[in-house]
Design brief:
The complex is a heterodimer. By secondary structure, chain A is mainly α. The longest helix of chain A has about 35 residues. Chain A is built from 14 helices and no strands. Chain A has a single domain, classed as ABC transporter involved in vitamin B12 uptake, BtuC (Orthogonal Bundle), CATH 1.10.3470.10. In chain A, α2 crosses α3, α3 packs across α12 and α5 packs parallel to α8. A 6-stranded mixed beta sheet of chain B has the order 7-8-9-4-10-11, sandwiched between helices. In chain B, strands 1, 2, 3, 5 and 6 form a 5-stranded antiparallel beta sheet that branches. In chain B, strands 15-14-16-17-18 form a 5-stranded mixed beta sheet, with helices on one face. Helices cover about 35% and strands about 25% of the residues of chain B. The longest helix of chain B is centred in the middle third of the chain and has 16 residues. The N and C termini of chain B lie far apart (about 65 Å). Chain B has 2 domains: about 240 residues, Rossmann fold (3-Layer(aba) Sandwich); about 70 residues, no CATH class. The chains are: A mainly alpha, B alpha/beta. The interface between A and B is large, with 37 and 51 residues.
């Protein structure tokens, strides 16, 4: 089959590979739409025209609108945009790496690993939350992200070691237990800091896209872009890994190296997001399944851009729901995520015939 | 043209050698079956040939290059592997799965060129899986799935294909089908194929060459028929209670015959009647037309002679029943 001119077989109808451009365009349009809604809707309604004026550097009709959009809503929306994309990519990476349709940074407890990393930094520095940021500036923020990434890596390595011994469903329980273990350790570690600081840490415990600082955004956005770049560079090895490790090896993939890079990407993405937003529940798992269903393929060349867009779209939408003006009680972000995420997990579990043979 | 060559190869684990000093060669377009009882070291040998494990001594060369000196990508362009395990790949069409075979040939993004697509299509056609191409792999039967996996291996454009018991979970018609495909791939597409299998009968009928690995070695190679005639085949699988019938070319249970039955007749009916009688412990003879037990097979049916009288029988089941009864009376 090495001859130069190969006849193209005409007889059979060959299936088409590759992404559907229209679906991407729709996703992109959705992201843009919800991003703008995020800037318009809130306790104060700001018309679209005014938002666009403010974004393009113009003066709004009311001076307060300027402040609201640029200082509150824009950072929050940017945070949701990039963090959502990051978590979407993480979900897909983890599901393929562990060959488990239930894998996701939250479900596997990776976020708790990240929290543990943060807790250690906070205690060592003796200050938590904004006080910490004020004292150490961008270096403090950077160390938070680095510690979270390191904690995530540790937790993933623990799960990797354990995942070889247990089934795909049991890994859920393993992740849950490791999460509890981390939370226990966090409490122990926080014992060494004073009560106020511990309380600040606890409030950060709830995932939220609000309240991110400019400095943090300046670290988050490049970190997420770098992580996403790595994730997209991994689509070919990830496709080979769909066949399982032994086949991937026979196809010429250095499995150990590919896995290390994938772990690094996941750690950067999940770690940075968790450091600044807290644990975001279920988003990764929902995004990956939604995209597989929408694009009807497990091909990472199609899925990786899809989960990136879908992650951003869902994160922005979930965040929008939490600050709709007509909701008297503000919903927590993870409450919204849980409402969507838990049914998806249940659906995956029930779909498998015997609860064991789970497929991606 | 030599595709595979081993020089003084010793394989095993740790310090324990399982098979020593192998000097094997395979030429282009040969279909070779590796046969041997479990635990003889088949997997160890296969794994060493695929560079999945290091040899204890000696070397394995594919197309003249030592596999230990090749990087994984170069090796994947020369050697393709199909395993026993049933792969689960999520949502992929058979076509997409076969396209993964182009992995060692594509750039870092995995983009497929027109030439890649042409090779994928040819590979699918070579195994006769055109009608499966757009189906989802998770919907395929085990046999269809292995066919697709073969096409994927073929898409790697390897000179050497190692197939580890790929027919193990298939039913007989599917196994025959896969063997037929393998013969085509070897003889018409010039692939060199090494297949480990427990399917002795099919291997005897389809392989160009056998590698026989009895427990405790040594490895014997040769045409299937030569190995049968020399008794090597029988030796490799000799165990209590099983005999290899050189004349019929199949294995059968050790039978201790209690009676002779004279059988007359020919064709398929006579053949299967003889099989039934042997199963029941009767030695089938054709030189005792006045013996105490006789069976006549003709177009109209079976006639059984015993206790000095003839009786008719509509089926082999009844023949056996009657003979059993007669024997009991005797």
């Amino acid at each position: 089959m090495s001859d130069a001119t190969l006849p193209f077989p005409q007889s059979a109808e060959w299936p088409r590979l590759g992404p559907r451009k229209l679906a991407y365009l729709l996703l992109l349009a959705g992201v843009a739409l919800v991003f703008l809604l995020e800037l318009m809707i809130g306790a104060v309604h700001i018309p679209l025209g005014q938002v666009l004026t403010i974004l393009s550097g113009g003066e709004a009709e009311r001076i307060t609108w300027d402040r609201i959009v640029l200082h509150f809503r824009l950072p929050r929306a940017l945070n949701a945009l990039f963090s959502g994309a990051a978590i979407g990519a993480c979900g897909l990476l983890l599901q393929t790496l562990f060959r488990n349709p239930l894998a996701d940074p939250f479900v596997l407890g990776v976020v708790h690993g990240a929290k543990f990393g943060v807790a250690i930094v906070v205690v060592v520095a003796g200050l938590a939350g904004n006080a910490f940021a004020q004292k150490f500036g961008w270096l403090g923020d950077l160390s938070l992200a680095a510690a979270a990434a390191a904690g995530s890596t540790l937790l993933m390595l623990a799960i990797l070691a354990l995942s070889r011994r247990v089934s795909t469903v049991t890994i859920l329980i393993v992740g849950l237990m490791l999460g509890y273990l981390c939370q226990g350790l966090i409490s122990v570690v926080l014992h060494f800091t004073d009560e106020t600081q511990a309380r600040v840490f606890e409030s950060w415990n709830d995932g939220s896209f609000a309240g991110i600082t400019q400095t943090q955004l300046r670290i988050l956005i490049p970190a997420v872009l770098a992580g996403l770049l790595l994730a997209h560079a991994l689509v070919k090895p990830l496709n080979a890994l769909l066949l399982g490790e032994s086949y991937a090896r026979t196809l010429g993939l250095p499995v150990g190296r590919a896995r290390a890079v994938a772990f690094a990407a996941t750690a950067i993405l999940s770690g940075t997001v968790t450091a600044y937003c807290g644990p975001i529940a279920f988003l990764g798992i929902v995004v990956a399944h939604l995209c597989r269903g929408l694009f009807q393929t497990s091909d990472h060349r199609t899925l990786m851009p899809a989960v990136t867009l879908m992650g951003a779209l869902l994160a922005l939408s979930a965040d929008l729901v939490t600050h709709l003006p007509w909701s008297k009680h503000f919903l927590h972000l993870n409450a919204v995520n849980g409402l969507i995420g838990a049914p998806v997990v249940l659906w995956v579990l029930l779909r498998s015939r015997n609860g064991r043979a789970l497929e991606l | 043209m030599t595709v595979l060559e081993t020089r003084e190869l010793t394989v095993g684990y740790g310090s324990r050698a399982v098979i020593s000093n192998l000097n094997l060669t395979l030429r282009r377009g040969q279909l070779v079956c590796l046969l041997g009882p479990n635990g003889a070291g088949k997997s160890t040998l296969m794994r060493t040939l695929c560079a999945m494990q290091k040899p204890l001594a000696g070397e394995v060369r594919i197309d003249g290059t030592n596999v230990q000196n090749m990087n994984s990508r170069d090796l994947a362009r020369k050697l393709a592997v199909v395993l026993t395990e049933r792969v689960t790949v999520g949502i992929l069409t058979a076509y997409a799965l076969v396209s993964l075979g182009r992995y060692p040939h594509t750039d870092w993004t995995g983009r497929l060129t027109d030439r890649d697509h042409a090779i994928i299509r040819r590979s699918i056609e070579a195994v006769g899986a055109q009608d499966l191409a757009s189906r989802n792999v998770s919907e395929l039967s085990d046999g269809e799935r292995q066919k697709v996996m073969l096409a994927r291996a073929l898409a790697q454009e390897p000179s050497f294909m190692v197939l580890d018991e790929i027919t193990a979970f298939l039913d007989l018609p599917r196994r025959v089908d896969i063997m037929r495909i393998l013969r085509t791939l070897a003889h018409e597409h010039g692939r060199t194929i090494l297949l480990s299998t427990h399917d002795l009968d099919l291997a005897l009928r389809t392989a160009d060459m056998l590698w026989l690995l009895p427990k405790g070695g040594p490895l014997r190679t040769g045409a299937p028929e030569d190995l049968v005639l020399s008794g090597a085949f029988e030796q490799a699988f000799s165990s209590e209670g099983v005999d290899f019938d050189k004349l019929q070319g199949h294995f059968r249970l050790h039978n201790t015959f209690h009676d002779d039955v004279h059988l007359e007749g020919n064709g398929a009916e006579a053949f299967w009647t003889a099989r039934a009688l042997e199963r029941e412990g009767f030695r089938v003879v054709s030189d005792n037309p006045i013996g105490p037990l006789r069976v006549n097979v003709s177009e109209t049916g079976w006639r059984v002679f015993g206790n000095g009288a003839w009786s008719e029988s509509p089926s082999i089941e009844k023949v056996v029943e009657q003979l059993r009864k007669r024997r009991g009376v005797q």
